Amino acid sequence: MYERKVLTDFGVNDLYLLGKYHYEKAGNCLTPHFHQDMMEIVYCHCGTQLYEVDNQIYRIKGGEIFITFPNELHSTNQKPEEKGILYWLQIYIHPDNNKLLWLSKEESVFLINKLLSISQRHFKADTKIYKIFEEMFIANDLYSDVEKQIRIKQLLLQLIIILIDTSSLSTLEQKDDKVSVISSFIQDNLKNQLCINCLANVVHLSESRFKSWFKQQFGMPAMEYIQRQKINKSIEIWNQNPGKSVTDIAYSLNFSSPQYFSTQFKKYIGVSPKIFKPQLCDNSM
Question: Which ranges in 21-127 belong to alpha helices (H)?
Fold first, then answer.
């Protein structure tokens, strides 16, 4: 599946763009760019995505928010838009702007200053964020111009308030010891056959509870996380030993065949191993 939807005509002056994608395989990379006098708010619902801002790398995962402030240069650091579900919007936000939505000058200045003073760009999202994004798309599709504008303005204000509140309260620090336990176990056993039952036993949870807990902590199902880690491991091995063949890597990481490994590699990296390996060698020269 390759679904990408971008909306720009809402009749809401402050909302420039609303977008979402649902990729079953990696897409294109985002080259360095900026949004003049606009704040971009990204919500990752499922999967992961890498961003670069001011030479700093950020890896966001399902259930997290990422913000770029007005006029900030950002990109995906030559990496593809990854497999997953992601929403984003761009709103005009400038300290000299005295009007936001239908609010008074005093209210507008207050919210604009609050948005521009958010101290962390990457944080846990409130659970309501997904519903708000979806309801914006629904409002655009179902309602006439006037009612559409009213509904989208109300939803945008709700999102802004939630964003301001959660940015100061949220933390990405993992307080659950089981996270480090299961992460280490998976990394140590990438060459073995892993199943949900054995993973659940490691952290002493039932299978159903484990599935729910894992997705909440890592932003994706356990088996998808394992596949991503195996692909990352294959790149690590090639960095250390470029002479390794695709077949060697595939079987060393317990893929059923080199063909299946190549399919999974392209799904997450965006190119096949045969194309990727020469690029790796060129970059190391």
Answer: 105-116
How high is the pLDDT of residue 217? 86
pLDDT band at 96 (very low <50, low <70, confident <90, very high): low
Contacts 24+ apart (CB under 8 A), 193-196: 193/254, 194/226, 196/222, 196/223
Residues 148-155 have a mean pLDDT of 95
Assign domain 177-284 one CATH number from 3.60.160.10, 1.10.10.60, 3.90.1720.10, 3.40.30.10: 1.10.10.60
pLDDT tops 90 at residue 189:
yes
Q: Which long-range contacts (CB under 8 A, 24 or more apart) does 48-55 make?
A: 48/82, 48/84, 48/219, 48/220, 48/228, 49/76, 49/81, 49/82, 49/84, 49/86, 50/76, 50/77, 50/79, 50/82, 51/75, 51/76, 51/77, 52/76, 52/77, 53/121
Q: Do domains 2-169 and 177-284 have the same CATH topology?
A: no
- Amino acid 66 reads F
Predicted TM-score of the model (pTM):
0.81
